[in-house]
């Protein structure tokens, strides 16, 4: 029962499922005068953002670990590429123990022609050609700088050739001709 300043009494009622925890005439071990403190630390906006940031970092680390090919040989890389979704028309062929070829054929004429190819050497260096011309390494720097580290780099480049074959920049065409 609570008394207001003006002398009115207010009756408080327990909920039906309430269990009394303060019993004045009972032994001390039956009473709990200190309630369990509630923490709002997990409920704050900053802590929610921090938890989301940690979860995203964990996902990124997992993806990068699964995507890494630095420990694979060309046979394992071939298997991994075949498991990926490579655009229709592209083939993955291990040429030898030293080279893997990813190519798209142009079969619009009686004589099939390799329209574009990406060869991956055993040291994971990439060589790209389009229409029988070598693509300069400077046009691959955005995806591959040196040796290939992630499978996604290679798959992304293979997928992009589907869109870029007919739409090469003038600069790229000139450099390839040289």
Shape: rod-shaped
Adjacency order of strands in the biggest sheet: 3-4-5-6-7
Helix content estimate: 25-40%
Unreliable stretches covering 5 or more consecutive residues = none
Count of individual helical segments: 4
Mean pLDDT across every amino acid position: 76
How would you briefly describe this protein structure?
This protein has 4 helices and 7 strands. With 178 residues, it is of the alpha+beta class.
Structural commentary:
The protein is an alpha+beta fold and 178 residues long. It has four helices and seven strands; from the N terminus they run ββααβββββαα. The chain has a domain at 74-177. β3 (90-96) and β4 form a beta hairpin. The longest helix has 23 residues, at 45-67. The mean pLDDT is 76.
What brief labels describe this structure?
alpha+beta, 20% strand, 31% helix, 4 helices, 178 residues, rod-shaped, two-stranded antiparallel ribbon, single chain
Secondary structure elements and their pairing?
Elements: E1 2-3, E2 9-10, H1 45-67, H2 74-83, E3 90-96, E4 99-106, E5 113-121, E6 126-130, E7 133-134, H3 151-164, H4 170-177
Antiparallel strand pairs: 1-2, 3-4, 4-5, 5-6, 6-7
């Amino acid at each position: 029962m609570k008394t207001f300043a003006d002398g009115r009494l207010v009756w408080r009622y327990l909920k039906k499922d309430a269990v009394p925890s303060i019993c004045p005439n009972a032994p001390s071990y039956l009473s709990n005068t200190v309630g369990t403190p509630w923490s709002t630390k997990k409920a704050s906006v900053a802590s929610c953002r921090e938890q989301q940031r940690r979860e995203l970092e964990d996902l990124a680390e997992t993806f990068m670990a699964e995507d890494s090919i630095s420990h694979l040989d060309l046979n394992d890389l071939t298997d991994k590429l075949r498991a990926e979704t490579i655009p229709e028309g592209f083939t993955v062929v291990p040429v030898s123990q030293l080279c893997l070829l990813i190519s798209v054929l142009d079969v619009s004429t009686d004589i099939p022609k390799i329209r574009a190819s990406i060869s991956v050497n055993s040291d994971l260096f990439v060589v790209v050609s389009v229409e029988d011309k070598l693509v300069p390494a400077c046009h691959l720097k955005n995806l591959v700088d040196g040796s290939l580290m992630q499978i996604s780099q290679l798959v992304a480049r293979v997928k992009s050739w589907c869109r870029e074959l007919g739409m090469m920049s003038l600069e790229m065409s000139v450099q390839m001709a040289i």
